[in-house]
Design goal:
Layout (H helix, E strand, L loop, with lengths): L12 H8 L6 H15 L3 E9 L5 E8 L6 E3 L3 H9 L3 E3 L17 E9 L2 E10 L7 H14 L4
Antiparallel strand pairs: 1-2, 1-6, 2-3, 4-5, 5-6
Helix pairs in contact: 1-2, 1-4
The structure holds methionine sulfoxide.
């Protein structure tokens, strides 16, 4: 596969991710390219990236992403990302304005999909996708992103 030929039409997302990641590289290098792939892959994405959990699992810190400026620190007790990390589960939000504790990094964001990345039982990061559209992400997108999270977990 050539990097220029990566597209939804020709490959599955997990094939692309497996092709791109290189376990010999620093984590940040892998996540940087993956954030761009995720941004381009799903339709209607305004922000795509990673928040990395601290050792104590109390806080998420901004990792590589594509999109407008974002919050650098999210406590596990706050926001959709924190909810996902605390409850160790995927969170699909059709309308972020109805989600108690949502953190509005951008006032344009209307829907969001967050999937945790696990190392064993521990959440080491979350993948966050935002959209300016309401209900932009589907349950099928969530399943695809969970597959991605599983593949990426070997980098941690
Ligand atoms: N909206 C997120 C915060 C991260 S930014 O949107 C990039 C949340 O509520 O967790």
């Amino acid at each position: 596969m050539e990097i220029e030929s990566i597209s939804r039409e020709s490959q599955s997302l997990s094939t692309v991710i497996n092709f791109l990641i290189d376990e010999k590289l620093p984590l940040v290098s892998n996540l940087a390219n993956l954030s761009r792939v995720l941004f381009d892959w799903f339709k209607g994405v305004s922000w795509a990236g990673f928040y990395l959990a601290n050792e104590e699992n109390t806080c998420l810190y901004l990792g590589p992403y594509q999109g407008p400026l974002a919050c650098t620190t999210i406590p596990f007790s706050k926001g959709v990302c924190g909810f996902s990390a605390t409850n160790k589960r995927t969170v699909l939000v059709d309308d972020v304005h109805t989600f108690k504790g949502h953190i509005a990094c951008s006032s344009m964001t209307n829907s969001e999909l967050v999937v945790p990345i696990f190392k064993g039982d521990r959440v080491v990061a979350v993948i966050d996708l935002d959209s300016n559209n309401f209900s932009n992400f589907t349950k099928e997108d969530a399943v695809v992103l969970e597959d991605v999270a599983f593949i990426i977990s070997k980098l941690f």
